[in-house]
Each structure stands twice: as C-alpha cells, then as structure tokens.
Design brief:
The complex is a heterodimer of chains A (404) and B (116). Chain A is of the alpha/beta class. Chain A has 11 helices and 26 strands. In chain A, strand 10, helix 4 and strand 11 form a beta-alpha-beta unit. The model of chain B has no long low-confidence stretch (mean pLDDT 93). The longest helix of chain B is centred in the first third of the chain and has 4 residues. Chain B is built from 1 helix and 9 strands; from the N terminus they run E-E-H-E-E-E-E-E-E-E. The chains are: A alpha/beta (404), B mainly beta (116).
Chain lengths: 404, 116
C-alpha cells in the first residue's frame, strides 16, 4: 500500500515539503491542510504587498493549477486539531478524519505580543499573515504617525514601506545598532542610519506602556519624560512558534517542536519543518533561523526522510532583506570571525563584507551586490582557503577566485 | 554551421563580450521582443538566451550567477535551466522563455522567438 502523507500548514516549509516529495518520486496520497484561503508567500507582506503594489493572487506560493498537476489535495480554511498517528489519521477541526501514515507539521508561528500594558489596543498591529498586512495597510495613510516597535528585519522593512507611503515613522529598538549579529556591527550601523537618511526617526528605547485615547494611541518610551502620540503602532518583536498541536500529541516541545537532523520528532510518524521546528544538532537544540530558505530546506530534508533518500547537501544559511531601495543578502554568520574584509566602500552601494576565520570565509553580507554573497556561499560550502587582500579588491573576479 | 543560416539571426555580441559564468542583457530595441534578452554563458563556455526579467520579481537574470546549466536570479535565487528556461525552485513558479542562440566565428547570433 502506498503511503499517505498529510502536511499541516501551507507556508514555504509545507509547500516545499510537497514539492520535494513529488519531485523525488513520492506516489502516495498527499494532502495539504491550511488554515488560510490559499497558500501564499510571506516575504512580500512587509514590502510590495503591504505597499499595495501586489495582490494576494500575485504572491501565491504556487498557482492553483500546480496542486492538481502535482495531485495534491488542498484543504484550505481548515485546521488539524488532533494527531492520531497510532490509528493512522489526523482529525480536522470539523471533526472529520483524514488518513495519514505520516504527518508533517509546518504550523509556523504567530507574531509575538509581549505583555506591554495597553498593547491590546486595536491601534496596535502585528505582521505575520496577509490579513495582518491588509489591516495594517488601511492604517498607513499619508501623514499617519506610525510607531514601529522593534528594528529587526520585519520592523525595518515595514518602516521602509510605510515611509514610502508617506507615513511619519518612528522606529524604536532598545538595541544599538539592531541586527549587529546578523550583519556585523559596521553594516548594521550603516543600515540603521539609512532609516534616518530616508526620513524615518529612530529611537533607542523600549516601549513601557501604551495608552489609547480616542483617535490616537500614546506610547511611553523608556528614558523619555513625555509620551508620544501615534495613529498606529506595529509590534515587530519576533514570533512565537505554533506548537499547540504538537504539545497535545505528546511531542517534545521547547519554544518549537524538537526534531532530529532529518526533521523527525520523537514520534517517527511525525515530522516538523519551518518556523515551528527546532533541530537537535549534536544533542543541542539549535536556534531557529526563521528565514525563508531555511523553511524551504527543512521541507526538502523532510521529503528526503519520507522518501528514504539521502539528505540534501548542507549549505550555509542565506537570507535577503530589502529596505529603502537597497537589497541586502547575508550568508553564513559574522559573529565569530577573526578578520573582516570589505569589498568596495562601506556605505556606498554596491559593497560587501566578508568574515574570515582561519583563512576561510564563514560569512558575508552584500548591499546591492548579491554576486558577492553567492560567491561567498560557494566558498563557504567548498571550504576554500581565501586570500583576504584579493577578496577585498573590487577588481578581483570572485568567480575566478572561486575556481582557483 | 553546416547549412544553418544566420540570415534571420541578429548579431548581438562577440563571444568574448560574455564572460564564462556571467551574462549580458541585450536591449529589447535590438531584439524586437517584449522583454530584454539575457545572454548567459555557462562555465563550460556554452551560450544560452532567456528573457531577462525574472518571472518572479523585477530582477535582471543577466546579473545572475551562471553555473552548471542554470542561472540563479540575483534577487531571490530562483534557478532557471539555461537550455529550456524551466524554473527549478521557488519563489519563482513560471518558466523563463528561452531563445535560440548560435555562435559563428566568435560572434553570437540571437534568434528571438525561436526555441533553442
């Protein structure tokens, strides 16, 4: 009998699982259950979609026809409320049962809502779903005073989009500069200053309390005497993994569903991928990267596990982000390097920065110079020994350096 | 070229203008097509041609990373087969359009609208 797989959650990790199963030759029954209307891609939610430049149909992860072409049963507007893997089924919210020999949990997460007094005010937004973006967009009218709490990737992207829509944006974060771990201190500092250059007000501080009063909401920021008034607030302070289903199924959960390096939970019939999952590596539960490609790779690994195929080759982590018209990419990690090499002039795009340890690249950041990061990724994966001087010379052809 | 005619092809570049592993964009004013066309040279030296704009977002495939039969989009890293334009990975979901290219005496001829 062929196997029946149910994937729970239609984000990038869930849809990638399905795509990789079919492209890997899986010929069993395949069902995707998603709570939304139709599986869509999240990165545009803080950029073009929030700006109203694209519609929901433009950001579908796959077109409707794809699901029938791939012989995938797509159940939308529905949730899985219980795993009954011992009897080979999952139970849907409407009480019906779906046969399942294996279940892949791709349940993602929710935007975090820290317990700040007054944060339950309806003028306080979060951004995780298309519905969140739709609601936020109505608040981003020209001249609207917007407070964004948290200057991480989502906060910075929303600041850029809102500023572009003509809002008066204040971006608050207690860390200075934000994202130094991700970009390295120099580029993080430059990117944060770019907000000010482009008309966004940055504040180093946390929000202590909100107070709603009629048409406005006031925010008391740490270190400031007076509250500031806003028309809307966005809390951009990270996510909380959606682990309820896993917990009720008795799986091991610690701010994420614990899985091994093949994405398998403590129940061999249940796998978990994407933002909901955390991977044990050498006995240590690693931090989630919460990036798009990491979700895609989780799905590909899960599919390989189900297929009994070798795991896909490991590659350095990679993500992109866009703000104020610059495209930034990061590969690997820059937090533990013994040499930093700048290619081009810092602050004058295109430029990039490479982090080296023991003569090898371990991370790189590019601003409007994605070829540098694409080269660096291959140098990391192939563990090539690199001459820092050559690397930093913009005249050096990185493709040739990679081949040499 | 063994009987193939270059008469309906457009000479768009010298082969040396396109470094291995890279691409150049040929303006639509030259190609007469709706989109610019990317000439992409694989690391084995072969030249291929695809519509230049990524099918996912506003990005120039001519600025992408060309390797092992594929071009990787410079924005979000979707890959397209150089020979057929077939998309290999999300976020793009639609294939790129491929055009026929011939190289004769170190000159690159493009045949817009013809399949490779």
């Amino acid at each position: 009998m062929s196997e029946r797989v149910v994937v729970v959650g239609g984000g990038i990790a869930g849809v990638s699982t399905i795509a990789a199963l079919r492209s890997g030759g899986f010929d069993g029954d395949l069902t995707l259950v998603d709570a939304g209307d139709f599986p869509y891609d999240r990165p545009p939610l803080s950029k073009d979609y929030l700006a109203g430049k694209t519609e929901i149909k433009d950001i579908a992860l796959q077109p409707p026809q794809w699901y029938s072409d791939q012989q995938v049963r797509l159940i939308t507007g529905s949730t899985v409320c219980a795993l009954r893997t011992d009897s080979g089924a999952v139970q849907l919210g409407d009480g019906s049962a779906l046969p399942a020999d294996r279940v892949v949990l791709a349940t993602g997460g929710r935007a975090a809502r820290p317990p700040i007094p007054g944060a339950d005010n309806q003028r306080v937004h979060v951004l995780r779903t298309a519905a969140d973006a739709d609601r936020l967009r109505t608040a981003l009218t020209p001249g609207a005073r917007l407070l964004i709490v948290g200057a991480g990737l989502i906060g910075a992207e929303v600041a850029s989009t809102a500023q572009g829509l003509g809002c008066e944006v204040v971006l608050a974060d207690p860390v200075s500069p934000p994202l130094a771990m991700a970009f390295g201190r120099d580029i993080a500092t430059w990117l944060h200053r770019l907000h000010e250059t482009c008309g966004v007000t940055t504040v180093c501080g946390a929000v202590e309390a909100f107070h709603g009063s009629g048409d406005t909401i006031s925010a008391k920021l740490s270190g400031e005497e007076d509250s500031r008034s806003f028309d809307a607030v966005v809390m951009a302070v990270g996510m909380t993994a959606d682990t309820g289903l896993a917990e009720s199924a008795g799986l091991c959960v610690d701010r994420g569903i614990a899985v091994d390096t093949r994405q398998v939970t403590i129940n061999p019939a249940v796998l978990a991928v994407g933002d909901a999952a955390r991977i044990y590596v050498n006995g240590v539960l690693t931090q989630r990267s919460e990036h798009w490609e990491a979700g895609q790779h989780d799905g590909q690994r899960a599919a390989a596990t189900i297929l009994g195929a070798p795991a896909p080759a490991e590659t350095a982590s990679w993500f992109w982000t866009d703000r104020h018209g610059v495209h930034v990419e990061v590969v690997g990690a820059l937090d533990r390097v013994d040499e930093l090499v700048t290619r081009g002039a810092l602050g004058e795009p295109p430029f990039s920065m490479f982090g080296l340890r023991d003569g090898r690249i371990v991370g790189a950041v590019s601003v409007d110079d994605s070829a540098a990061v694409r080269a660096a990724r291959r140098m990391i994966d192939r563990q090539i020994v690199i001459d820092g001087f050559e690397l930093g010379d913009p005249e050096t052809d990185l493709r040739k350096l990679l081949r040499s | 070229m063994n009987g193939k005619t270059m008469s309906d092809g457009i000479r768009v570049a010298a082969l040396d203008d396109v470094p291995e592993g890279e691409g150049i964009a040929i303006d639509r004013a030259v190609t007469g097509t709706d989109d610019d066309i990317a000439l992409l040279r694989d690391d084995d030296g072969m030249v291929w041609a695809l519509n230049n704009t990524c099918t996912h977002a506003e990005a120039s495939l001519a600025e992408g990373w060309v390797e092992d039969g594929y071009v990787e989009c410079p924005l979000h890293a979707s890959k397209f087969c150089l020979k057929t334009g077939a998309v290999q990975g999300m976020p793009a979901t639609r294939d790129a359009i491929a055009h026929r290219v011939e190289v004769l005496d170190g000159e690159v001829y493009l045949f817009p609208g013809q399949r490779p």
